[in-house]
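User: Quick sanity check before I run a bigger batch. Here is a single chain. Can you write out its predicted 3D structure?
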Amino acid sequence: MNHRFKILKTAPVFVSLCLMLISANFVKAQDNVITFKVGLFSVTLLSEGQGEGNPGILKGATDEMLKNSMPGGTYPNATNVFLVETGTKTVLFDAGYGRNLFANLLQHGKDAASIDAIVLTHMHGDHIGGLLNSNGEKTFPSAEMYIPKPEYDHWMSDAVQGGAQARNVINAYKDKLHLFTPSEVENAQEVLPGIRIVAAYGHTPGHTGYMVESNGEKMFIWGDLVHAMAIQIPYPEVAVSFDTDTEQAIAYRQKLLQYMAEKSGLRACTFPFLPLVISKRTACADTTLHLRKIEM
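Assistant: Done. Predicted structure follows.
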């Protein structure tokens, strides 16, 4: 199977998929709270901040890859949290660093007490930083906590060093803790209505993605499946230095990008600002708002 994703600099926009994402009033670099629809669900991106990524973390990138993908020598980077409102549940996906999380929620008309469930992609500090206050107490008093069991097992192991933050989160939410085992994307099972759990291992032992589905529309929240979109979409064999298992991370990135490319209209998150539409014939929008066609 050919896993190379060729990105062209110019291409027509596939309007029916992308127009809602790039209207003049919808996309602004300074916006930290952006809301859009997936079927009947309301999805809100809560940005913890944007910046430029360090190419020094990339593993397996040749000079030619870097030249083709990052002519400016860097790539857009961000920490984003997603809020999904299904009509019956308000679900938070990860918690970022916690820098702007609560201000962003308030801007959207929500507070910590309004969150029904928190679903984690993994337990690195930039995804769980908003879950505890300075006293080590949980910041979402009403929320049920959903953690992939392989991720839980990893951070609770005595053999893992530097896992105090993850263990503190687990202990703080232990009275509302739910563990689950992710399935492969072809057989993904629901963890909550309209939310399916997808194995995306490698970045961490239990790294998980979530397929959000409503009224025939789908969005894949992919956590850290892709760190540097500019290079890892066309060259998914490029890894990052802090992947726990490099080969496994590459294999799942290749598999899931291929799956998304074959599913018309499936959006993917969580790189900066906007959902990406990956397809054999459609365009996508990245953080610089350049439209790029992806060919298979």
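The helical segments are 15-18, 63-69, 101-107, 125-128, 149-156, 164-172, 229-232, 246-262.

User: Great, the batch can go ahead then.
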